[in-house]
């Protein structure tokens, strides 16, 4: 890539980040709500499906912005919420708790190079 084009690419990534941040935060909020319902033992089928969709979309966009830790967490959550029935059990990494941790990082992040890896 021509060094002259680098600022244009950075600006484009910044615009995309700004554009998609509200959707990402909304998806994290969905995952937080699902995690709370799951921990309370009252996760509905609809909440499970909504959380699965949110985790899937979040994994994709985080991958696009080269945030591998967040992508991994979102994929773990997607795997948990994709099950048709039965109780959801956290993986050994504690993904339900991680969804809240990731949400906290997301809410404080303002741009993809903010220094967080989630």
How would you describe this protein?
By secondary structure, the chain is mainly alpha-helical. The chain has one domain (3-108). It is built from 4 helices and no strands. Helix 1 runs antiparallel to helix 2, helix 1 (6-40) crosses helix 4 and helix 3 (68-81) crosses helix 4. The radius of gyration is 16 Å and the shape is elongated. Residues 107-112 and 114-118 have low confidence and may be disordered.
Major sheet, described briefly?
none
Helix content: over 70%
Assign the structural class, choosing from mainly alpha, mainly beta, alpha/beta, alpha+beta, or little secondary structure: mainly alpha
Q: How far is the N terminus from the C terminus? A: 27 Å
| H/E topology pattern | HHHH
User: How many DSSP-defined strands?
Assistant: 0
Give the CA-based shape.
elongated
Mean pLDDT: 75
Determine the number of helices (DSSP H or I, runs of at least 4 residues).
4
Q: How many structural domains does the protein architecture include?
A: 1
What oligomeric state do the depicted chains represent?
A: single chain
Stretches where pLDDT falls below 50 for ≥5 residues? 107-112, 114-118
Write the layout of secondary structure elements.
Layout: H1 6-40, H2 45-64, H3 68-81, H4 95-108
Helix pairs in contact: 1-2, 1-4, 2-3, 3-4
């Amino acid at each position: 890539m021509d060094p002259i084009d680098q600022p244009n690419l950075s600006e484009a990534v910044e615009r995309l980040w700004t554009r998609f941040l509200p959707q990402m935060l909304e998806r994290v909020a969905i995952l937080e709500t699902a995690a709370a319902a799951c921990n309370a033992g009252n996760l509905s089928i609809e909440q499970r499906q909504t959380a699965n969709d949110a985790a899937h979309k979040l994994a994709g966009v985080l991958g696009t912005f080269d945030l591998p830790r967040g992508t991994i967490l979102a994929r773990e959550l997607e795997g948990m919420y994709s099950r048709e029935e039965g109780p959801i059990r956290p993986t050994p990494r504690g993904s339900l708790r991680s969804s809240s941790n990731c949400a906290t990082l997301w809410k404080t992040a303002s741009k993809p190079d903010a220094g967080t890896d989630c």
